[in-house]
Recover the amino acids of this structure.
C-alpha cells in the first residue's frame, strides 16, 4: 500500500498556518475583487482588461480544481483511487443542466415547451424523471442528491466487502464507462450524443452577460475556497487521523476497534458531492454537457492533476489542476498532435520521479533556503 | 414448333417432393393428378408457345394485356430466345424486322432467334416501345430468368429474393427452375418461393400444400408470410388457417432455436477474444500485482502488426497473400512481447509495490503508444482483410451462419490457452512464474530470479495480448484507440475470475462473453453491459477474491 506516513502530525493541528491564511486572503482579493473588477470596469482595449475568454477559462479551471480537491480527499487521505470522479462531476452537471434546459422555455429551435432534443425525438411530454426540473432550488437539491445517493450506495457495497486498491479503481472506471454508454442513448432522455447545450438564461437572467459570467466565476472561486477549508477542517480533526490510519494500515485500525466502513464512506460521499457541485458550476460556464464528460479518460485525467500537484496536501491538487489545464489549453491550440505525448509523459514522469508532486518541489525549495 | 404442355413434368416432380413428406401413396397420387388438372386449367398453360410470325404484330400492337400474356408464355415455356428478348426489352433495344425479333447493338442488328448478326442489308425495322406496366413485367421476368443463370451465386440470390416476392403467375417458371436445380440450398429456397406463389392461388388445396411446405422452413421471410396469411380476412379457408397457425408455431420455435444458437456462438467468439486479452492480463497481474493499463494497446500493436504483415505480403509475395495470417501470428506475438519488455524495463520495474501509481504510469504509456501509432499510421482505421479461405461460413440452419473468421479465432484462442497452460504447468519457467505469483519473497529466497521472471512474464502477457490483436483484426475494426474498448471488459474478467489461475480467466471470459451476447439480444447492448457490471459488483460482494481463489499462505497487504 501507499506509505506516505512520515512523522505523525501533532495531536491538535491549527486549521491553517499563518502563511496559509495570508494565501487565503490573497486568493480572496484576487478572485473576488481584482479579476471581476478588471473584467467589468475596464474597457475592452485596455491592456489590463481580462477578456471573457479568460474569465471562462478561469472559471472552468476553478471547477476542475474543486474536483481535484475532492479526489485528493479520498485518494490522498484514504488511499482510495477513484477513476470515476468524472461521473459525479458529470451527474452534477446534468442535474443542473436539466434546469438550464427547462429555462430555455420556448426560445429553442422548435419554439416548443419541451427541450429541443425531445421534440426532435417526437416525444409528447416530459419523462417522469424530469419532474421539478424547472424549479431552481429543486434542481440544486438534485445536484446534491443524485450523485450523493449513487456514491453512498456504491461506496457502501464496495467498502463493506473491502474492495480496495486497483480493484476499486477498476470498478469505478467500469461504473463511469457504463453510465457513459447509458447517457449516449437517446432513449435515456438526456439528449444522447449531444447532451444539453444552447442554454439561454439562469434564474431568469441571460447567461451570456458579463455580470453573469463574473458571478459564476466568483461563485466557483468561493466554492473552491469552501471546499479546501472544509476538507482541511476534516483532516485536521480526529476523523482525518483515522482516515489516514485506514489508508496506511486498515487491518490494524480494525483491530483497534474502529469500523473503517463509515469513515471511508463519509469521505467518499463527501468527495462525490464536491465533484457534483463542481460539475453544476461548470455547466453554465462552458455552456454544454455531454456524455463524453463521463469517459474513463476524463476521470483518469483528474487523477493526474492530483498526482502532478501532490497528493495529501489539498493545495497541491489545486496547483496541479491549474498547471495541467493551462498546459492543455496551450498545447491543444499550438501543438495538438503532441498533447497526448505530453500528457502521457506527465503520467510517467510524475509517478517515477516526482511522487510528491509540485508541492514537494516547493517545500524542498523552502527547506533549501532556510 | 412445340405444342405439348411443358408444365406436366415439373408439376409431377414437384409432387414427389411433397410426397416425401406425405405418408400415404394413394394420397400422393391423387394430389399429383389434381395438380396436373389444375395446371392444365391455369390460364397460362392454355397459351401457345414459341415464336410465331404473327406474334410480332401483337408485340408491336398496343394491347398491353395481350403483350404481357405473350411474354409470360415465352417465359413459362423456357423459350431460348426469352432471355435475350427480355434483356433487349429492358434496354429498349428490341426491334422487329421482317417479322422477326432483332436487337440493335453498336449499330449492328442481331437476330434474336438465331442470335447472330444479320448481313448488311436494307431492312424495314420497327422499334418495340413499352409502357410502365410492361416494364415492371419485364423486370420481374428478368428476375425469374436469373434462376437459370450458370453462376450458382446469381441463382442463389435470385431464389432468395423470390422468397418474399413470388406471385401466382411465376408458378410455372419456378416449377421449371426447381426441376432443373441441382443445388440443394437453392432448391430449398425455390421450394419456399414456390409455396409463396401457391398461396396466391384461388384453390384452397394448393394453399394448404403451400402452408405445409412453409412449416418446414425456418426463415424470417416465412414468418412474415405466415403472419400475413393469418391477418383477419386474408384467408377464408378454415383448414388453411389452422395449418398456418401450426406452421407459424413450428417456424417460430425453429427461429428461436436458431437465434439462441447464433447468440451462443457469438458469445463464445466474443469470449475467446476476451480470453486472449484477459489471459495476458491475468498473468501480469498475478505475478506482479499491478494492473497494466497499456495492456489494451498491446492488442492494438498486435493488430497493427497484422496489418503491416498483410501489406508486406501484398507488395512482396502476392501469391502467398492468403497465408499472411500464419506469418502475422508469430510477428504480432514478438512485437507485442518486445514492446512489453521495453515498458517493463523502463517504467514499470521502478514502481513495484505502488500499484496505484503503476496504474497511472501505464495509462500514460498507453496514451503515448496510441499517439505514436496515430502519427505512424494515421488516425483513421486501417483495413485488414480476411484471407479468402476465411470468408463465408458454415450454415447450421437457414439463417444461422457461423462465419469462418469467428470459428478460426475461437480455435486460435483455444490453441493459445493450451500453450499457455502447458507453459505454466509443464516448464521450469512456468514453475517459477507460479512460485512468484504465490509468494514473491519466498520464491526469491529459494533462488528464483524474480526480476527476470517479472520481465519474462510481462513479455508473455503482452505477447498473448498481441495474439488477441491478430484475432480482433479479423473480426473488428483496427484503429489507434481500439485497445481502450477492450480494457475495461478484460479487467472485469480478471476481477471476476480471480488472480493466478487460468481456469478463473477462462470461465470468467466465456461467462461474460456468452451472458453479454445473450443479454444483448434481449435488452440491447448498453443495458446488457450495465446489467453485467451490476452483477459483477454484487458478485464481488460474495466472493471478493473472484471465482477461483489461489490457495496459499498470504496475508493481505
Amino acid at each position: 500500500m501507499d506509505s506516505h506516513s512520515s512523522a505523525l502530525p501533532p495531536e491538535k493541528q491549527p486549521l491553517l498556518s499563518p502563511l496559509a491564511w495570508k494565501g487565503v486572503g490573497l486568493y480572496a482579493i484576487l478572485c473576488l475583487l481584482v479579476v471581476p473588477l478588471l473584467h467589468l470596469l475596464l474597457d475592452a482595449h485596455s491592456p489590463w482588461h481580462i477578456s471573457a475568454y479568460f474569465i471562462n477559462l478561469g472559471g472552468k479551471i476553478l471547477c476542475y480544481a474543486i474536483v481535484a480537491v475532492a479526489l485528493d480527499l479520498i485518494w490522498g487521505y484514504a488511499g482510495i483511487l477513484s477513476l470515476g470522479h468524472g461521473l459525479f462531476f458529470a451527474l452534477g452537471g446534468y442535474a443542473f443542466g436539466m434546469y438550464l434546459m427547462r429555462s430555455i422555455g420556448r426560445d429553442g429551435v422548435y419554439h416548443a415547451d419541451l427541450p429541443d432534443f425531445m421534440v426532435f425525438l417526437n416525444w409528447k411530454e416530459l419523462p417522469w424523471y424530469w419532474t421539478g426540473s424547472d424549479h431552481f432550488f429543486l434542481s440544486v437539491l438534485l445536484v446534491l442528491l443524485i450523485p450523493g445517493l449513487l456514491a453512498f450506495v456504491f461506496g457502501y457495497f464496495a467498502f463493506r466487502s473491502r474492495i480496495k486498491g486497483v480493484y476499486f479503481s477498476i470498478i469505478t472506471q467500469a461504473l463511469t464507462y457504463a453510465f457513459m454508454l447509458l447517457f449516449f442513448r437517446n432513449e435515456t432522455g438526456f439528449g444522447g450524443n449531444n447532451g444539453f447545450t444552447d442554454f439561454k438564461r439562469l434564474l431568469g437572467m441571460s447567461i451570456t452577460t458579463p455580470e453573469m459570467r463574473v458571478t459564476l466565476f466568483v461563485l466557483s472561486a468561493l466554492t473552491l475556497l469552501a471546499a479546501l477549508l472544509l476538507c482541511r477542517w476534516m483532516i485536521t480533526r480526529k476523523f482525518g487521523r483515522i482516515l489516514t490510519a485506514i489508508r496506511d494500515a486498515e487491518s490494524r485500525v480494525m483491530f483497534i476497534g474502529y469500523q473503517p466502513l463509515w469513515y471511508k464512506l463519509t469521505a467518499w460521499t463527501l468527495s462525490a458531492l464536491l465533484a457534483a457541485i463542481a460539475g453544476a458550476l461548470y455547466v453554465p460556464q462552458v455552456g454544454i454537457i455531454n456524455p463524453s464528460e463521463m469517459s474513463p479518460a476524463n476521470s483518469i485525467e483528474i487523477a493526474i492533476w492530483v498526482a502532478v500537484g501532490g497528493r495529501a496536501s489539498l493545495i497541491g491538487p489545486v496547483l496541479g489542476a491549474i498547471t495541467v489545464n493551462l498546459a492543455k489549453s496551450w498545447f491543444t491550440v499550438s501543438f495538438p498532435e503532441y498533447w497526448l505525448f505530453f500528457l502521457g509523459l506527465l503520467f510517467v514522469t510524475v509517478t517515477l520521479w516526482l511522487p510528491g508532486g509540485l508541492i514537494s518541489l516547493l517545500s524542498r525549495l523552502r527547506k533549501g533556503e532556510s | 414448333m412445340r405444342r405439348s404442355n411443358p408444365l406436366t413434368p415439373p408439376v409431377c416432380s414437384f409432387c414427389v417432393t411433397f410426397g416425401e413428406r406425405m405418408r400415404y401413396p394413394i394420397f400422393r397420387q391423387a394430389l399429383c393428378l389434381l395438380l396436373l388438372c389444375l395446371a392444365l386449367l391455369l390460364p397460362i398453360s392454355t397459351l401457345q408457345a414459341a415464336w410465331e410470325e404473327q406474334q410480332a404484330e401483337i408485340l408491336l400492337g398496343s394491347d398491353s394485356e395481350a403483350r404481357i400474356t405473350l411474354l409470360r408464355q415465352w417465359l413459362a415455356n423456357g423459350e431460348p430466345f426469352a432471355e435475350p428478348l427480355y434483356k433487349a426489352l429492358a434496354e429498349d433495344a428490341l426491334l422487329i424486322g421482317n417479322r422477326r425479333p432483332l436487337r440493335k447493338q453498336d449499330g449492328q442488328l442481331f437476330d434474336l432467334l438465331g442470335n447472330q448478326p444479320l448481313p448488311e442489308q436494307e431492312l424495314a425495322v420497327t422499334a418495340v416501345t413499352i409502357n410502365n406496366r410492361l416494364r415492371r413485367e419485364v423486370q420481374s421476368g428478368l428476375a425469374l430468368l436469373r434462376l437459370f443463370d450458370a453462376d450458382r451465386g446469381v441463382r442463389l440470390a435470385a431464389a432468395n429474393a423470390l422468397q418474399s416476392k413470388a406471385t401466382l403467375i411465376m408458378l410455372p417458371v419456378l416449377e421449371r427452375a426447381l426441376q432443373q436445380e441441382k443445388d440443394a440450398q437453392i432448391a430449398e429456397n425455390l421450394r419456399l418461393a414456390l409455396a409463396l406463389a401457391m398461396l396466391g392461388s384461388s384453390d384452397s388445396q394448393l394453399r394448404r400444400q403451400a402452408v405445409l411446405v412453409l412449416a418446414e422452413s425456418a426463415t424470417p421471410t416465412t414468418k412474415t408470410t405466415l403472419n400475413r396469411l393469418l391477418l383477419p380476412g386474408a384467408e377464408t379457408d378454415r383448414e388453411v388457417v389452422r395449418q398456418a397457425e401450426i406452421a407459424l408455431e413450428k417456424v417460430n420455435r425453429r427461429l428461436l432455436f436458431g437465434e439462441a444458437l447464433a447468440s451462443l456462438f457469438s458469445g463464445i467468439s466474443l469470449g475467446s477474444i476476451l480470453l486472449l486479452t484477459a489471459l495476458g492480463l491475468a498473468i501480469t497481474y498475478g505475478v506482479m500485482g499491478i494492473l497494466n493499463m497499456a495492456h489494451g494497446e498491446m492488442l492494438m500493436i498486435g493488430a497493427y502488426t497484422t496489418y503491416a504483415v498483410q501489406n508486406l505480403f501484398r507488395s512482396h509475395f502476392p501469391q502467398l497473400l492468403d497465408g499472411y495470417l500464419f506469418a502475422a501470428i508469430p510477428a504480432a506475438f514478438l512485437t507485442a512481447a518486445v514492446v512489453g519488455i521495453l515498458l517493463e524495463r523502463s517504467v514499470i520495474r521502478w514502481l513495484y509495490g505502488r500499484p496505484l501509481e503503476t496504474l497511472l504510469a501505464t495509462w500514460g504509456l498507453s496514451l503515448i503508444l496510441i499517439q505514436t501509432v496515430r502519427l505512424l499510421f494515421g488516425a483513421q482505421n486501417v483495413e485488414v482483410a480476411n484471407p479468402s479461405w476465411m470468408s463465408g461460413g458454415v450454415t447450421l440452419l437457414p439463417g444461422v451462419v457461423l462465419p469462418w473468421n469467428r470459428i478460426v479465432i475461437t480455435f486460435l484462442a483455444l490453441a493459445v490457452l493450451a500453450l499457455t497452460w502447458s507453459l505454466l504447468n509443464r516448464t521450469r519457467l512456468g514453475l517459477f512464474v507460479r512460485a512468484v505469483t504465490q509468494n514473491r519473497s519466498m520464491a526469491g529466497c529459494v533462488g528464483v530470479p524474480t526480476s527476470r521472471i517479472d520481465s519474462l512474464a510481462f513479455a508473455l502477457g503482452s505477447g498473448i495480448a498481441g495474439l488477441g490483436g491478430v484475432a480482433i483484426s479479423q473480426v473488428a475494426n483496427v484503429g489507434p484507440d481500439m485497445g481502450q474498448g477492450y480494457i475495461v471488459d478484460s479487467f472485469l474478467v480478471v476481477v471476476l475470475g480471480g488472480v493466478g489461475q487460468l481456469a478463473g480467466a477462462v470461465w470468467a471470459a466465456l461467462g461474460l462473453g456468452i451472458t453479454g451476447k445473450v443479454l444483448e439480444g434481449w435488452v440491447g447492448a448498453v443495458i446488457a453491459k450495465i446489467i453485467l457490471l451490476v452483477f459483477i459488483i454484487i458478485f464481488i460482494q460474495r466472493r471478493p477474491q473472484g471465482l477461483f481463489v489461489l490457495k496459499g499462505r498470504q496475508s493481505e497487504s
